[in-house]
Design goal:
Length: 71
C-alpha cells in the first residue's frame, strides 16, 4: 500500500507557492520541490511536523495511503 504526500495539493488549496513554503519553513526550495514530487521515498518526521505546523494541517491530511491498484 503506497504512501503519498499531498503537499502539492495542499499548497494549491491554500494558494501558497513552494517557494513561499520554503521561505516560511526556512529550508531550501529544492527540498520542498522534492517533497511535492511523486518521487518521495522518505521524509524526516521533524520536516513533516514543521510542514503541518506551517500550513496548519494535521498529519493525516498530509499523508495518504493509496491502494495498489491506484498505481
Amino acid at each position: 500500500m503506497p504512501i503519498r504526500l499531498r503537499l502539492r495539493d495542499i499548497l494549491k488549496e491554500k494558494g501558497i507557492s513552494q517557494r513561499e513554503l520554503a521561505r516560511r519553513m526556512e529550508i531550501r526550495p529544492s527540498t520542498v520541490s522534492h517533497l511535492c514530487s511523486d518521487k518521495v521515498n522518505a521524509a524526516y518526521f521533524d520536516t513533516l511536523e514543521l510542514i503541518c505546523k506551517t500550513l496548519d494541517v494535521q498529519l493525516h491530511e498530509l499523508i495518504i495511503m493509496e491502494d495498489d491498484e491506484d498505481q
